[in-house]
Description:
- This protein is of the alpha+beta class.
- The chain has helices spanning 17-20, 26-44, 60-64, 67-70; strands at 5-9, 45-55, 73-77, 83-88.
- A four-stranded mixed β-sheet has the order 1-2-4-3, with helices on one face.
- The longest helix has 19 residues, at 26-44.
- The chain is globular and about 35 Å long.
Amino acid sequence: MFGQYDFIYLSNILSYDHWVFNSDDREYLAEQYAKLVSDIYTKNLNQNGLLIYNYGFNGLLDKYCSKEIVERKVTYDLGKLNRAHGLRKIK
């Protein structure tokens, strides 16, 4: 929507998914979350770019994104309990 970038960091914005998508239905929220992340990945991330979509995320993205996108998933260990999850856009 706003251009293309080598690095996109969504921080914890989507931790507020019930407000962003105006629902408390967890299945619906997971679908909307995955669609938004997939759209940003497809439209706004440059080749070889990295999208960090959350930290400590519970893995629902895998259920709703295409196999091609899930195969590009990367996880960074940030300490004992914290992890950052992202997608690397490769050719």
